[in-house]
Specification:
By secondary structure, the chain is an alpha/beta fold. The protein is built from 25 helices and 14 strands.
């Protein structure tokens, strides 16, 4: 039995109520007798395969995506092994349910569908006692923590404590996509209030019903949390998720060189987009160093992508100034240029000497980009005029509409292909169905961070890295791009088939671990068989014998 599944004296009802240990009707007769389970479960002993048939049948009876989400979460809460086995058997079908786009709707209604606590909640009341709160967590060997304050959930804005659905969902992907053991995952909601008035007025809101905390006290709570994690879970990597722009950049800058941490919205998104651009080279014939990339949206995702693209272009031989000159941004006020006096700090390095352009279309006509990347959180902003302009300027225009959930996508796959006569190289943040145009079927790629962060996390976990660096996201992106096949490209897809995600994540983990050992970021000695070492760390959702 794996160490993470030790019974710790649990038996009877307590054993059945532990989702990491529960096997339901699959407990053998010997286990039922030894562990005090006789009579507590139906008499017929089933296999996990038989249970899979039952739960999938129940899942398929749900006709509403939110009901499917509730069903899967409920299954996870009572039997983790069966939940992950089911998800892995039907990954392409269920990922949009356990994460984007359905998780967005689930967060919006979280207080109304709430059934059982999952993860830890830290509020202003716990200030000075956060270590004690973390000690309430039942698992001692925590390796991956996803924490949010709920201020910028996907493209939906401030959802306060309802945002707990995001850490829970992200960690489900760590396990499903990369095999990070669920006992080593900890979701955390930093509930410091919300400025969403509809939530404050909602009697079923589960969070602290007060305006969002700002300033030094917020920083003190975060510092206390980070410090407590170092004491209690010294091998843990902290992933900051869906914080507002100002806090996201600031917290990453403050902690990235002090502890093992990263921000998936900034760095993970950057990795998956860089991989998509590298893959698109094989369709467009345009080398990365020759790309002119125009972003709609200059928040944490856009700037993070720009920074990683610049690093990759510099690795390809461009000076930093030239690389930055290849990245342009349009925000809510128009093109980001040096003459503007309203730019916040993180935008300044991408503010170029250029005439102002008030609209995205004007910016396209002026900049003549080869790639257009949407990270705006604003639906339908890649209008027909915008997409047709990209098609006029480029034989194979690269159009990535990455805002989540699906309702926030800058344009649909059907629009991108239809308005460019099928020439667009298209990817989206949430999934779109294949599009048939003039007898040819185009399969849009999904630029989902789940291609990147689970593998990076697995590599950090397996190598016990003390830091997470930008180099790791660069090698993750290059590894991901290298796994796109010619058959993928023939369909127009710039990412691998999602059903290969565990293979992809394992390869990324090995590449990340190589960086860790090469840069001396761990106390471990490099294993002779690094791929085997990573493989040994991967959780498999199988039942184990307890007696």
């Amino acid at each position: 039995m794996p160490p993470s599944l030790h019974l710790h004296g649990k038996r009877g009802v307590d054993l059945l109520h532990d989702p990491l240990l529960n096997k339901g009707t699959a407990f053998t007769d010997a286990e039922r007798d030894t562990l005090g389970l006789r009579g507590l479960v139906p008499p017929y002993v089933t296999t996990q395969e038989q249970q899979l048939v039952r739960v999938y049948e129940s899942y398929k009876r749900k006709t509403d995506e939110l009901e499917k989400y509730i069903y899967l979460v409920s299954l996870q809460e009572r039997n983790e092994s069966l939940f992950y086995r089911l998800v892995l058997e039907h990954l392409e079908e269920m990922m949009p349910i356990i994460y984007t786009p359905t998780v967005g709707l689930a967060c919006q209604r979280y207080g109304h569908i709430f059934r059982r606590p999952h993860g830890l909640y830290i509020t202003r009341k716990e200030k000075g006692h956060i270590r004690a709160v973390l000690q309430n967590w039942p698992h001692a060997d925590v390796r991956v923590i996803v924490i949010t304050d709920g201020e910028r959930i996907l493209g939906l804005g401030d959802l306060g404590a309802n945002g707990m659905g995001i850490p829970v969902g992200k960690l489900s992907l760590y396990t499903a996509c990369a095999g990070v053991p669920p006992a080593q995952c900890l979701p955390v909601m930093l509930d410091v209030g919300t400025n969403n008035q509809s939530l404050l007025n909602d009697p079923l809101y589960i969070g602290t019903p007060q305006p969002r905390l700002r300033g030094p006290e917020f920083d003190e709570i975060v510092e206390e949390f980070v410090s407590a994690v170092q004491q209690l879970f010294p091998k843990a990597c902290i992933q900051f998720e869906d914080f507002g722009n100002a806090n996201a950049f600031r917290l990453l800058h403050q902690y990235r060189d002090k502890v093992c941490t990263f921000n998936d919205d900034i760095q993970g998104t950057a990795g998956v987009v860089l991989a998509g651009l590298l893959s698109s080279e094989r369709l467009t014939g345009t080398k990365l160093v020759d790309e002119r990339v125009l972003f709609l949206g200059a928040g944490e995702a856009g700037i993070g992508i720009g920074d990683l693209i610049v690093s990759a272009m510099m690795a390809g031989g461009l000076p930093q100034d030239a690389a930055r000159r290849n990245c342009w941004f349009v925000d809510s006020k128009g093109l980001v240029v040096k003459s503007r006096t309203d730019l916040v700090e993180h935008k300044l390095r991408f503010a170029h000497d250029h005439a102002q352009a008030g609209t995205l279309l004007e910016a396209i006509e002026s900049i003549k980009p080869t790639a257009l990347i949407g990270v705006s959180g604003m639906a339908q902003t890649f209008t027909e005029d915008v997409v047709r302009a990209m098609g006029r300027l480029n034989k194979r225009p690269v159009i990535f509409a990455l805002s989540n959930p699906t309702s926030k996508a800058e344009c649909t796959a059907e629009q991108a292909y239809g308005w460019t006569e099928g020439r667009a190289v298209y990817a989206s943040g949430s999934p779109f169905a294949p599009v048939t145009l003039n007898g040819k079927t185009h399969v849009p790629g999904q630029g989902n961070n789940s291609y990147i962060f689970p593998g990076v996390g697995l590599g950090v976990l397996a190598s016990e890295s003390s830091r997470v660096t930008d180099e790791m996201f660069d090698v993750a992106a290059r590894t991901l791009a290298s796994m796109v096949t010619e058959s993928d490209l023939a369909l127009g897809r710039v990412y691998p088939d999602l059903n290969r995600i565990r293979e992809v994540s394992a390869a990324i983990a090995v590449a990340v671990a190589e960086v860790v050992f090469a840069r001396g970021l761990t106390r471990l000695s490099r294993p002779a068989d690094l791929a085997g070492h990573v493989a040994a760390a991967i959780y498999q959702p199988q039942y184990h014998d307890y007696v």
